[in-house]
Design goal:
about 500 residues, alpha+beta, six-stranded antiparallel beta sheet, about 60% helix, about 20% strand, disordered N terminus
């Protein structure tokens, strides 16, 4: 009979070598689930991209709020020289003459937007024009205080307030999208973590099965050599050992593949090594379905996003209604100016002095204007736009109701599934304990010659099934808790809300 003293095949040895080789040069991670989630939050490319989306919305909000504050603009022309030919129609005929101008200008404008959608501005500027055709310098200094105010904004659609509200809602929606993505990432990492842990445990179970089968093989070999069993029974044990070796090799390969997938998900290097916390302890959690539903309806981002959509649509409706209302714009200003005309041989100090003297003497300029625009007939275009927007808002309201119902159904099913999964896990824990004791008894009976190899194989398969079923139930229980947490924004294990 052929000897099988080797526990680990060449393929498994190569895999283990490459997994361990270079550990000193590459980074090693001892990971718990919480640590895995923390790394994914920092390094996952999807999270980095979503954080940039939130930063964009934050900066857009900051820009919109800044637009409501006082703005100061400086305009400088240093200098502007033009040389051209102009045409003049005179009684004696058409004449052409050259124009040579040099202009310098400096102006400052201060604008203050008003909550009423209007603005107050102060504009002051000093302009110098040199006319080289007549060797004359013109300097004027002008200061104007003005008001622009759309009257209908006092009771109707206010563009400034709407812009701020839209920016705030967009930022809020971006933050909520980021939070939902974080919870989804937590669930994805949890699923990948427990999948990797499951394959790790499967490899351990396969190794334990291989060791048991090796022990049984040695017993059968000794019994065959002593003439206590038939050759066919000894050969069957050798076949079972080969199968156990093959199962172990496959388990090692599956674990290596899942290991790379997990490292890619959380954002660490594929050449880094990881070790998972294999502790399978857990705390039984009891969840009240009504409490869980209330949390979900309060916290679920899908519902809050529907509220944001409704608020944005209300602004759209208000804007479109304002398009068919009369508009009244008031413009008023008060202005003082001073002008001086001097020859080039007069110095700039003299020109400036005469300009400011004229500024104090010259009568003020002022103006007030009211512009009214009344839409009379547009073939019902605005009315159609308003009705379309109102229909869209009703659609959002229906969607919100449907989402609330869907959320309630989903959470109640999750709570029921969590309860049944916990009961199954507790049952399978006892099943593992019974299966281990039963296998130990069966192995001793086989060693004593009371049963044949077939009975031992059946008991071994039963033990392996118990291990696998318990592992699956444990993984399902942990994932059910993680899924319930992301669907309610509440961690029932710690009895704390998710911030």
């Amino acid at each position: 009979m052929k000897k099988r003293p080797v526990i680990m095949s060449a393929a498994a040895a190569v895999i283990v070598f490459f997994l361990c080789h270079g550990a000193a040069a590459q980074q090693h991670y001892d990971l718990t689930l919480d640590r895995s989630i923390e790394i994914a939050m920092e390094k996952s490319y999807s999270m980095l991209s979503l954080k940039e989306d939130t930063e964009i919305a934050a900066q857009n909000l900051k820009s919109t709020l800044a637009a409501q504050r006082t703005r100061i603009d400086l305009t400088l022309t240093l200098p502007n020289y033009t040389e051209s030919v102009r045409q003049a129609d005179e009684s004696s005929g058409v004449k052409f003459y050259s124009v040579k101008h040099l202009t310098n200008y400096g102006g400052l404008t201060i604008t203050q937007p008003l909550p009423t959608d209007g603005s107050i501005y102060v504009r002051s500027g000093l302009n110098n024009l040199n006319d080289y055709n007549v060797d004359t310098r013109y300097i004027d200094f002008t200061t104007r205080i003005g008001l622009r105010q759309p009257i209908q904004s006092l009771w109707g659609y206010n563009a400034n307030r709407s812009a701020v509200k839209s920016a705030r809602l967009a930022y809020e929606q971006s933050v909520k999208s980021l939070k939902r993505a974080e919870l989804n990432l937590i669930y994805s990492v949890s699923s990948a973590y427990y999948n990797l842990l499951s394959l790790q445990k499967s490899a351990e179970i396969a190794q334990l099965n291989l060791e048991r089968q090796t022990e049984a093989y040695e017993i059968s070999k000794n019994k065959y050599e002593s003439g206590l069993i038939r050759e066919v029974d000894a050969l069957q044990m050798e076949v079972d050992l080969a199968e156990a070796q093959s199962n172990y090799d496959v388990a090692v390969l599956n674990h290596a593949s899942a290991d790379n997938t997990f490292k890619e998900l959380i954002g660490i290097g594929l050449h880094d090594t990881v070790s998972l916390d294999s502790n399978m302890e857990y705390e039984p959690v009891s969840v009240d379905s009504d409490f869980a539903v209330a949390l979900a309806l309060k916290n679920r981002l899908e519902i809050q996003e529907r509220d944001i959509q409704i608020e944005l649509q209300k602004l759209t409706i208000k804007q479109r209604k304002s398009a068919r209302q009369p508009t009244i714009n008031v413009d008023a200003y008060y202005e003082r100016s001073g002008i001086s005309t001097e020859a080039f041989n007069a110095g700039y100090p003299t020109s400036f002095e005469n300009t400011f003297k004229d500024f104090t003497r010259r009568p003020s300029n002022f103006g007030v204007g009211v512009t009214i625009s009344v839409p009379i007939f547009n073939w019902g275009q605005n009315k159609a736009n308003v009705r379309a927007s109102e229909a869209r808002m009703r659609q959002y309201e229906y969607s919100k109701i449907e989402t609330e119902r869907s959320v309630e159904t989903e959470v109640r099913n999750l709570v029921s599934n969590l309860s049944s999964t916990l009961k199954r896990l507790q049952l399978l824990e006892k099943n593992v304990s019974v299966a281990e004791k039963s296998f130990d008894i069966t192995l001793k009976r086989y060693s004593d010659g009371d049963i044949d190899s077939q009975s031992l194989a059946l008991e071994r398969n039963r033990l392996n099934t118990a291990y696998t079923s318990h592992l699956t139930a444990y993984i399902n229980y942990q994932l059910a808790l993680a899924d319930l947490m992301r669907k309610t924004f509440y961690d029932f294990r710690t009895d704390m809300p998710v911030e």
